[in-house]
Amino acid sequence: MNDEVVLAALRTEGEGLSAVELAALLERLTGSLSQTVIVFYLKRAFPHIPLRILIESGAWSRVGTGKLSDDQFNELLRPWLGQ
Q1: 2-9 CB contacts, 8 Å cutoff, 24+ apart
Q2: Maximal CA-CA distance, the chain
Q3: How far apart, in whole angstroms, are the C-alpha atoms of residue 45 and residue 43?
């Protein structure tokens, strides 16, 4: 699946999802999930999310050695995901 298809799906299917749900969608669309994948796609799909916030999301325990729980990951991105 090319990048434009992934971005379009994130914008349409991702509306109203939590950060964890959006990450799961991203993983299904790309076949992988990492801090790099999150930053690359979410910044392009949702340019209003500050880059600093996306970089901080790399502390999510599912993509790195950080200590952010699922709830903390959701809370970090909640203001920009329209929830």
Answers
A1: 3/41, 3/44, 5/29, 6/30, 6/41, 7/41, 7/44, 7/45
A2: 32
A3: 6
Contact 68, 41 (CB under 8 A): no
- Phi then psi for residue 8, to 5 deg, are -65, -40
* Separation of CA 54 from chain center: 8
What tokens appear for 23 in the block?
A: 């990450």
The one-letter amino acid code at 19 reads A
The 10s digit of each residue's pLDDT in 61-75 is 999 888 999 999 999
- For the cut 90, the answer to whether the pLDDT of residue 4 exceeds it is yes
Q: Which amino acid is at 83?
A: Q
pTM of the model: 0.91
